[in-house]
Amino acid sequence: MRLLASIAVFLLLAALPLRAEVQYPLTVTDALGREVTIPAQPKAILLGSGFNLVALSLIHPDPVSLLAGWASDMKGDNPEIYARFKDKFPAIEQVPIIGDGITMSFEATLSLKADLAILANWQADTELGKQAIGYLEQTGVPVVVVDFNSDALNNTAGNMRLLGKVLNREEQANAFADFYDDRVKRIRDRVAEHPEPGPSVLMDAFPNPEKCCYAYGTGGLGAFIAITGSRNIAESLPAQGGIVNLEFIVAAEPDVYIATASPGGTYSTFSVGPGVDPAEARETLGRAVKGPLLSSLKAVKEERVYGLWNFFNAVPLNILAAEAFAHWLRPDIFADVDPDATLKEINERFAAVPFDGAYWIALKPN
């Protein structure tokens, strides 16, 4: 009987589908449409932006083990999220720094014997970025560019699939991409069923009581306004947005005000994001709109004031921002959309390091 049971188990296991392995050398098309050939499975990666560690952590159980070097921008701008990675993966403190997310040390990269470099699209578009790509490729290091910033709602899932293929983590990456696409589709389908216009919105980056204001345009996080069927009052500005004066905002009289910022009030009096307590986020958001520049707005008087982590525009967690916008701007049709539940599922199913803190906040508690 024991022998028969063993045979049955063996036959069952043999019948299960095997995880498809990526075959190297591998040629992929990156976010800029460049064809890149990767000779072997990458094991020593250079990250041109430290924020892309978040993407790796959603598809690999130990993303730090893949790093040959990385930029300090995530560590510098969001030390709390870095601390979470350090607690789980102490080896991150020994990973060499190769730049600050804007510049890159060519000497440092040459000494690290990397087998792949990953750059963000906003880096690769600059003259320095183009020089870095040329230098790395000349030294035999293939460069893949990923884009979680421009047209994020359409590009994020595909870029996660790209990373999954490059790193031989397709099963996990495709699962996250499907998860992402399903949630974006839910928002789009719901808005298509309710074509009546949503509210008008001002999204203000890093609010400062002393001066006004940097308004997001239709690109980056600004696209998350449009997907809800709402109107961005800065839609006439360049896609990346720009500085507007108080007269412009008063004339537009937005129904809703949304601020973006980072933990600890860096660049702003408003503190929100990784490791931030919701009470701190709400209190500092309230302070940010109490000054003379914003307190007279209808949106502020009616407490239709919200805030979220500015760096959603650099990571595939941006689906959480899309769901927060949907819930805030169109509560009549998105009452059941819960970004807290979505974050919980991401942490349980995908995240090598759980993401905690107040990544979004409403001035008026539910």
TrEMBL record:
InterPro entries listed in its UniProt record: ABC_Transporter_SBP, ABC_transptr_periplasmic_BD
Pfam families per UniProt: Peripla_BP_2
Keyword Ribosomal protein attached: no
Domain Fe/B12 periplasmic-binding: 43-337
Signal peptide: 1-20
PROSITE patterns given in the database record: FE_B12_PBP (PS50983)
NCBIfam families: PRK14048.1
Name of the protein in question: ABC transporter substrate-binding protein
Organism: Shinella curvata
Annotated keywords: Signal
